[in-house]
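JOB MANIFEST
job_type = single_chain_structure
chain_count = 1
residues = 174
[input]
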Amino acid sequence: MLCSSSINPHGFTAKVGDFGMARQAAVTRCAQPAMYGTATHMPPEALLDGIVGKPTDVYSFGVLLWEMLTSSRVWAGLKHTQIICQVALLKRRLAVPEGLPAPIERLLVRCLAPAAADRGNFHEIVVVLEEFLQSTMHEQQVDWPVKLPIVEGAAGALLGAPAVSTAAAAVAAA
């Protein structure tokens, strides 16, 4: 979420909020997927088996990062059932935008990894982001949003498309 800030030179501060999946942090548990979270931001294991835990939050962060980098809504134009089918059953993934700095691209890929064990944790995310900020403090500002590539999924559907009609057509064609 973006909150107004008189302290930040950009006039806003980004804050992370939880919209229904908060649970006891030390526990990985099973939940009914329909009862917790937002389908657009849920990883495959949460959609398929209701498994939620810290890796679920890392995946959700990856989705938010993707949205910030592309200035696009994830899975635009798709209904929740279509998203569940794409992510959980057809194993489709969000396309990695072209032109990202290498550390940010690696971070995004890791956060969105299909296997929970491959996603890392928030301590690692903070380290990567701090190192990236330190390395770019004197460089020029990066132009965002970055351009999305056309990527084919396992069954040939277009992924990462910002246009509603393209995303909806991809599901219809699958």
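[summary]
Residues 148-174 have pLDDT under 50 and may be disordered.
Residues 21-173 form a domain with the Transferase(Phosphotransferase); domain 1 fold (CATH 1.10.510.10).
exit_status = 0
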